[in-house]
Design goal:
This protein has 87 residues and is an all-alpha fold. It has one domain (5-86): Orthogonal Bundle (Non-ribosomal Peptide Synthetase Peptidyl Carrier Protein, Chain A), CATH 1.10.1200. It contains three helices and no strands.
């Protein structure tokens, strides 16, 4: 049985975060990208690029500074995927 879309998105986001990180990390939904996971601004942009490729979405760069936690990233990606599938 396939996972609900939100679980697939959450798994995908965490997978991308692990790929981009230069050290072993175990992200949770509550993890802060900068404070907890140690991402710098360049890595955040790498994460965005990978998420855009993986989910076939476009993440507005204006939204990036407000997106601090893994849960916020998952929510944003889920919203963009839903908007894409509804258009």
């Amino acid at each position: 049985m396939s996972q609900p879309a939100s679980a697939q998105i959450e798994e995908g986001v965490i997978d991308v975060l692990k790929n981009v990180s230069r050290r072993p990390i175990e992200p949770t939904l509550a993890s802060d990208l900068v404070a907890d996971l140690g991402f710098d601004s360049l890595q955040v942009l790498e994460v965005i690029a990978e998420l855009e490729d993986r989910f076939d979405i476009s993440i507005p760069l204006n939204d990036v500074p407000a997106t601090r936690t893994v849960a916020q990233v998952v929510a944003q990606v889920a919203q963009l995927v839903e908007e894409r599938s509804n258009s």
